[in-house]
Design goal:
Layout (H helix, E strand, L loop, with lengths): L1 E6 L6 H12 L2 E4 L15 H5 L5 H4 L1 E3 L2 E4 L5 H5 L6 H12 L2 E4 L9 H6 L2 E6 L3 H16 L4 E9 L9 H10 L3 E5 L2 H9 L3 H4 L4 H17 L1
Parallel strand pairs: 1-5, 1-6, 2-4, 2-5, 6-7, 7-8
Antiparallel strand pairs: 3-4
Length: 226
């Protein structure tokens, strides 16, 4: 299973969702945002090295805490030396070895946003409960349609906790507009602590509402792609 996690704009929590989904699914998180990498990493070869032919995909996979990650370099020079078109083969190679891959894609409609979608079996769209974020999400949804990557779920991120268990007309309209069921992820200090420590939410507090929602989201994705 190869899942691309995408978003219409930055700042909606796309990387956080991708990282936690990889943890819940027991897969490899691939940081495919070549110019603005955000997932945790350690020393060693990264995706820049792989796409420049300096390392193989499997030797670049690192164990960061409880999550396997193929990290991305942070330098612009490293990004310029890559061949983004090779990402499809890289992801397929990692998928054959590990079974499950979650790709953290570039946000928005940049020219390199479509390649990770092409590499995926399906995608998940992250947005926030604000009008501008939803408008951008609709445009990102159109890109997924253009490259014919099915959308399996929408993660509505940073929702007021008291509203997580309540279905409203807004969520139903969002699901209809984007063409996929919506799973709400709450605004949470636990998520913030997990981000600061570079860990998935479950490793910080497995009883937190956010941990439960990420677990449910992962189960829904698995069932949709079974």
């Amino acid at each position: 299973m190869i899942l691309a996690v995408t978003a219409g704009k930055g700042g909606v929590g796309k990387s956080t969702v991708a990282y936690n989904l990889a943890a819940e699914l027991g897969g490899v998180a691939v940081d495919a945002d070549l110019g603005m990498a955000d997932l945790p990493s350690t020393r060693g070869p990264d995706l820049h090295d792989v796409l420049a032919g300096r390392a193989s995909p499997l030797e670049a996979v690192q164990q960061v805490g409880s999550v396997s990650i193929l990290p991305c370099g942070r330098s612009l020079a490293g990004a310029r030396a890559t061949d983004p078109a090779a990402l499809v083969d890289v992801v397929e190679s990692v998928g054959k070895r590990y079974g499950c891959v979650v790709i953290d894609t570039p946000a928005g409609l940049r020219s390199d946003a479509g390649v990770p979608l092409l590499a995926a079996d399906a995608c998940l769209l992250v947005t926030r409960p604000t009008r501008p974020a939803v408008a951008d999400a609709v445009r990102a949804r159109e890109l997924a349609r253009v490259v014919e990557t099915p959308l399996v779920r929408v993660a509505l991120n940073r929702v007021v906790p008291s509203r997580v268990g309540k279905e409203t007309g807004r969520e139903r309209r969002l699901a209809d507009a984007l063409g996929a069921p919506v799973r709400k992820i709450p605004e949470s200090e636990t998520v913030a602590r997990a981000q600061r420590s570079g860990q998935p939410v479950r490793a910080v507090d497995s009883t937190a509402m956010a941990a439960e929602q990420f677990e449910r989201l992962a189960s829904e994705v698995e069932r949709a792609l079974a």
